[in-house]
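Bug #77: duplicate submission created two jobs. Keeping one. Sequence:
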Amino acid sequence: MAKLNINGKVHDVKVEADTPLLWVIREQVGLTGTKYGCGVAQCGACSVHFNGVVARSCSIQVGSVKPTDVIVTIEGLSATSTHPVQKAWAEVDVPQCGYCQSGQIMAAAALLAAKPDPSDADIDDAMTNICRCGTYQRIRDAVHTAARTAAGTRKTAAATSTFAASRAEDQS
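Kept job's structure:
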């Protein structure tokens, strides 16, 4: 029996310790957005966030996961598909067949969390997922679009915070 914190909810699952996390996410928990691609951690279709870092879930054995580890799947990134990366993916029209896209989005979201304004080289280094349709240029464009959107959101939030603080100061 393993306790897994997936998308903020603790799941008790009965599986063998050597079961790949991917299969638990898909078959035990019922979250099918994370895809099986190769089974050897090469393609990235199974990418999730594991304690805030992108990881290939097909290569993580459930027995190595602690109850305190935080796992986020594509379903947990944003329940309403409003994460800047998800919005950019739609705006740029990245998917062709779409099979690898959940893993690509998870990798891009992790990249932007670590490096909010990545260069093309940063994107190329971080985005090691395979896209059989070859949409790499659109993926790169979407990462830049998401970075700009997130930067605008941060500026708006900072301006709102500054305005609220000055109003509070004026009223005292």
